[in-house]
Design goal:
57% helix, single chain, five-stranded antiparallel β-sheet, 4% strand, SH3 type barrels, 21 helices, Four Helix Bundle (Hemerythrin (Met), subunit A), mainly alpha
């Protein structure tokens, strides 16, 4: 038993709330390996309690629990009754026999003269561990891997001992959640955006739910809107669950281990909701959201729920889970994320404001004018100079990529994995969108598919914006910003041309422009993903190529001015 020294307010569902002077039953100290947290029971409820607010009362025990433990340890009395003589014929035979049961004499072993008595192989004497297998790149990079055990190989070896079999069966290849390498300010901005998106997705889905909304004739006009709202909720909840899971990985590395204990149930609630949403939307997608299957005249009386009912029920209970998880992460952000870098008083561009920056278009136009004014004999040498200048810029960019800070490299690796998943969703949406165009579907059909394209592309734009805000390296920030802006422009062009194609349907040229805009959007998303993957690669030794000097007869030219970082940074 322990007495409460102070009042305690529960901050998580598995924590007990008590007042000063209450007597609690201590079931386990330092439960789950969490130092300072005790598993206690109070008024029929069990939960964890901070040990520094309790004091063990000497000589006071819970009589009911002690009596129960004492009863469970007392063995039941066993009655030993001798068997009757007529039921044991074997004993009767032994009593009648007057001879002893003597074992047989050992058989003579013939020894072969001239042979040595060689010891057994070392494998029969020693239990040598197996050689470690090199971890493959796929298993190391996969976010969701199955648990792999070595029990099959251990059981196949008949000469292995029980100790080696037990140790082999307890070896698992469990992928660990990636930490979130974001500064505090960027993490809070991302959290606020994810929370707003999840809340908006829940509100959007529940706006279609009303009394009798699934009756025949009422759901059919809205089934496409409900499908888009369900996909939006699934995507928003997935992003928030990934963010919360990565934050939990940060909490495991924090100095205060109690943060991880309190955050774990909040993250589990989000992941459970994500699983339910994923299963429900997958089941509805398998049935193609057919209105004939979803419409019904009356509610089921036995309380059974189909996939759409489960999706709506999960959305209704999701608002509180999102609010609690976001509030806890926001309140402990200073302990969960690294400090934001100090903003310099003067930007690096101010120190070089005497350098006049030009865009790639302006430089190309000026080079074309110079080339047109040159004689034919000098144009070849001028083209060589332009190629050498471009190559030197690429080499300097690669050398700058090798100097990326470790935090930026980890940041790029984290979001490159997410962009790969989002890019796959975008490719699937674009393929379905183009398929409806090829089949000549009316505007209401390709507009519904276009919503999925916009939703998938918007998530990738959000990733690019987050990386640009969180990165420290100026070259990486400029490159990601350029790719993100190009993707955003392609997304705006796709939306504009889709609306124009719907208004001008069945104009062939408008539909062709819409299809071309969708293909360009997929290409821009791949460029952003490649930029993140290249930034996440380990540094390599880069030897700059020597520039070939111009020929003796070439006219000396003014060096090309540096290009603007936003428009023309080479690939990292």
């Amino acid at each position: 038993m322990a007495r409460a020294l102070y009042d305690n307010i529960a901050e998580s569902p598995d924590e007990l709330a008590f007042r000063r002077g209450d007597l609690l039953t201590v079931l386990e100290q330092n439960t789950g390996g969490s130092e300072g947290w005790w598993l206690c029971s109070l008024r029929g409820r069990q939960g964890i309690c901070p040990g520094n607010r309790l004091r063990i009362v000497a000589g006071v025990f819970d009589a009911s629990s002690a009596l129960q433990r004492r009863r469970t340890r007392t063995p039941a009395p066993v009655a030993h009754q001798p068997l009757p003589a007529q039921q044991s014929p074997a004993f009767t035979k032994i009593e009648e026999c007057s001879h002893y049961d003597v074992p047989r004499a050992p058989l003579p072993v013939q020894r072969i003269i001239g042979t040595y008595d060689c010891p057994r192989p070392a494998a029969d004497w020693y239990d040598a561990p197996r050689a470690p297998r090199p971890a493959s790149a796929d298993s190391a990079c996969s976010g969701t891997g199955s648990l792999t055990s070595a029990t099959s190989s251990a059981s196949a070896n008949s000469g292995s001992s029980a100790h080696s079999a037990a140790s082999a069966s307890s070896t698992y290849d469990v992928p660990r959640s990636r930490a979130l390498p974001l500064p505090c300010d960027a993490a809070l901005e991302a959290l606020e955006r994810l929370q707003e998106e999840a809340s908006a997705a829940v509100s959007r889905l529940l706006s279609y739910v009303s009394p009798g909304w699934r009756r025949r004739g009422a759901l059919r006009p809205r089934v496409l809107d409900v499908r888009v709202a369900g996909a939006r909720l699934r995507a928003a909840l997935h992003d928030l669950a990934v963010f919360a899971d990565a934050t939990l990985a940060n909490a495991h590395d924090a100095q205060d281990k109690g943060i991880a204990v309190k955050l774990r149930p909040l993250v589990k609630a989000l992941k459970d909701a994500e699983r339910i949403t994923h299963e429900a939307t997958s089941a509805l997608d398998a049935g193609d959201w057919a209105p004939d299957r979803l419409e019904r005249d009356r509610e089921p009386t036995d309380g059974t729920q189909d996939a759409l009912d489960q999706l709506v029920a999960c959305a209704r209970s999701l608002t509180e889970d999102v609010r609690r998880a976001a509030s806890f992460i926001h309140g402990n952000a200073s302990l969960l994320f690294r400090r934001s870098p100090a903003v310099p008083e003067h930007e690096w561009t101010e120190e070089y404001d005497y350098v006049r920056l030009e865009s790639r278009t302006a430089v190309g136009r000026r080079n074309a004018e110079i080339r047109a004014a040159l004689p034919d004999k000098l144009r070849a040498s001028f083209d060589a100079l332009v190629r050498d200048a471009d190559h030197a810029g690429e080499v300097s960019a690669v050398a700058a990529a090798t100097r990326l800070p470790p935090d930026d490299r980890q940041l790029a690796a984290f979001y490159a994995a997410q962009t790969a998943t989002y890019g796959a969703h975008l490719s699937t949406a674009v393929e379905a969108f183009l398929r409806t165009i090829e089949m000549g579907q009316p505007p209401d059909v390709f507009l519904a598919h276009g919503k999925f394209v916009v939703l998938s592309a918007h998530r990738i734009v959000h990733v690019g914006d987050t990386v640009h805000r969180s990165a420290q390296h100026a070259g990486l920030k400029a490159k990601i910003l350029r790719c993100s802006d190009a993707l955003s422009d392609a997304l705006a062009a796709t939306v504009s041309k889709t609306k124009a194609a719907a208004l001008q349907f069945p104009c062939a040229s408008a539909v062709a422009d819409m299809a071309e805009a969708a293909r360009t959007l997929a290409t821009r998303a791949q460029e952003l993903r490649r930029a993140l993957v290249r930034a996440a690669e380990p540094p390599q030794d880069c030897t700059p190529a020597t520039t070939v000097p111009p020929s003796a007869g070439a006219t000396p030219l003014t060096p090309l001015t540096p290009l603007a970082p936003h428009n023309s940074l080479p690939v990292l």
